[in-house]
Automatic annotation (TrEMBL):
Subcellular location per the Swiss-Prot or TrEMBL entry: Cytoplasm
Gene of this entry: pfkA
Keywords for the protein's UniProt record, in alphabetical order: Allosteric enzyme, ATP-binding, Cytoplasm, Glycolysis, Kinase, Magnesium, Metal-binding, Nucleotide-binding, Transferase
Entry binding sites for Mg(2+): D103
Pathway: Carbohydrate degradation; glycolysis; D-glyceraldehyde 3-phosphate and glycerone phosphate from D-glucose: step 3/4
Limits of the Phosphofructokinase domain: 3-275
Active site: D127 (proton acceptor)
Protein name stated in the entry: ATP-dependent 6-phosphofructokinase
Quaternary structure note: Homotetramer.
Species of provenance: Lapidilactobacillus gannanensis
Enzyme Commission code(s) on record: 2.7.1.11
Length: 319
């Protein structure tokens, strides 16, 4: 193995740049040549590939987003698209790849491995919805962004004695809502992994009001409902002077936290170790604070499990 390629694919996440940098730095240390591939699998097929010079990486560890850009390119699910990508790898003499993205991207990565180009995947997504990893790159930054926003909303909720429904991202996973809810002392957390009973929530809010605690934050995972819809349903159960707020895409951006940078660095470093051992088709994770790997196909059969102890704990805090 002499030349490796790196691409980012699917939804962007803070810390992707730190991961690219780590992969490249470790690769240079091993005497490898490194190529950046722009726009994920779309750029691979289009040949948007360039040598990644060391200087390019200098200011990247602290930058949000991905300087290799990301794109969705469904055509890569077809063999035709994959073969076009292989042609480009041959043209540039790239022997192996690192793909940073979500589980969709892992499918693309596995196809490349099956075509003889060892590819290792790093979990880059704010949703934390990838199996066999306790945390994904970007989750911690998005969480801190959500917490910062909710703390601000709490101030105005307190001033006006209002109930705020705050929608956070996470797709079908409740992780962002669970962690942000606990971290901001939310009076209720609503996640796709658990059913909710609006009647009970309304009764809880009424009881709080009687006890003199007359503002509340409901942290809602986007996988359940929109903040507006949830608020409309809540309003049918009582007058809470409620407001709906969606934090939105700001959760996808921003300077990555130290935790995300370190996680990205460890995972990027490990990706090169696996490739040097001639391994591919593997997804890297962090489990019980150790960097691990699993065959990608195992991830497709497995579901991510949110930490629902947080949910139960938060309910007890608000009993
Ligand atoms: P996120 O969860 O953050 O959105 P993701 O990696 O799951 O990230 P997807 O849009 O599902 O995002 O996939 C990213 C890209 O991976 C697709 O646009 C496509 O190029 C490639 N891809 C997805 N599924 C497959 C597949 N079955 N076979 C080959 N390539 C695929």
């Amino acid at each position: 193995m002499k030349k490796i390629g790196i691409l980012t694919s699917g939804g962007d996440a803070p810390g992707m740049n730190a991961a690219i940098r780590a992969v490249a730095r470790r690769a240079y240390a091993e005497g490898l040549e490194v190529y950046g591939i722009n726009y994920g699998f779309a750029g691979l097929v289009a040949g948007d590939i360039f040598p990644l010079d060391e200087e390019v990486l200098n200011d990247k560890i602290a930058r949000g987003g991905t300087f290799l850009y990301s794109a969705r390119y469904p055509e890569f699910a077809k063999v035709e698209g994959q073969l076009k990508g292989i042609e480009q790898l041959k043209k540039f003499g790239i022997d192996a790849l690192v793909v940073i993205g979500g589980d969709g991207s892992y499918h693309g990565a596995l196809r490349l491995t099956e075509h003889g180009y060892n590819t290792v995947g790093l979990p880059g997504t704010i949703d934390n919805d990838i199996p066999y990893t306790d945390f994904t790159i970007g989750f911690d930054t998005a969480l801190n962004t959500a917490v910062d926003a909710i703390d601000k909303i709490r101030d105005t909720a307190t001033s006006h004695r209002r109930v705020f429904v705050v929608e956070v991202m996470g797709r079908n996973a409740g992780d962002l809502a669970l962690w942000a809810g606990v971290a901001t002392g939310a009076e209720a957390i609503i996640v796709p992994e658990r059913d909710y009973d609006m009647d009970k929530i309304a009764k809880r809010l009424e009881r709080f009001r009687e006890e003199g605690h007359d503002n509340a934050i409901i942290v809602l995972a986007e996988g359940v409902a929109t903040a507006a819809d949830f608020k409309a349903e809540l309003d049918k159960h009582g007058d809470f002077d409620s407001r709906a707020n969606t934090i939105g895409h700001m959760q996808r951006g921003g300077v990555p936290t130290a935790r995300d940078r370190v996680l990205a660095s460890k995972m990027g470093n490990y990706a090169i170790e696996l490739l040097l051992q001639g391994k591919g088709g593997l997804a890297i994770g962090i489990e019980d604070n150790k960097i691990t790997h699993h065959p990608m196909e195992d991830l497709f059969d497995e579901k991510h499990h949110a930490d629902l102890d947080l949910y139960d704990m938060n309910n007890k805090f608000n009993q």
